[in-house]
Amino acid sequence: MTCAEYRAAMSARLDGEDTGGLGEAVGTNGHEHSCADCTRWLATARRLRDFSARAPGPSAEWSDGLLGRLGLGRAEDRGQAADPDRGEDRA
């Protein structure tokens, strides 16, 4: 397994994505134990994932300001897109 394959599979696994079977091999092939660069990469990726999960999102005011600058208006003015899978109507 190459470093690129290992990192792609581990990135998908960390994100909870399907690895197409490659992820199962990743945990057992020992690449993370034989490659110091990938060991460091995985530790950094885990720290980033954990930090991001704990970080607060932007405030409603910040989001509205950004959307306004993009010409998309305020959240209340845009309405929410319907999700037909959940049976929702447009606001």
Task: Describe the structure in your own words.
With 91 residues, the protein is mainly α. It has helices at 3-14, 22-26, 31-34, 36-54, 60-69, 75-78. The longest helix is centred in the middle third of the chain and has 19 residues, at 36-54.
List keywords for this structure.
disordered C terminus; 91 residues; mainly alpha
Tally of separate helices = 6
Specify the helix fraction band: 55-70%
- Decide which structural class fits the backbone: mainly alpha
Q: Based on CA inertia axes, which overall geometry fits? A: elongated
| Largest sheet composition | none
Terminal Cα separation, in Å? Answer: 49 Å
> How would you spell out the order of helices and strands?
HHHHHH
Strand content: under 5%
Low-confidence stretches: 81-91
Number of strands: 0
Radius of gyration: 20 Å
Give the overall average pLDDT.
76
Architecture blueprint of SSEs:
Elements: H1 3-14, H2 22-26, H3 31-34, H4 36-54, H5 60-69, H6 75-78
Helix pairs in contact: 1-4
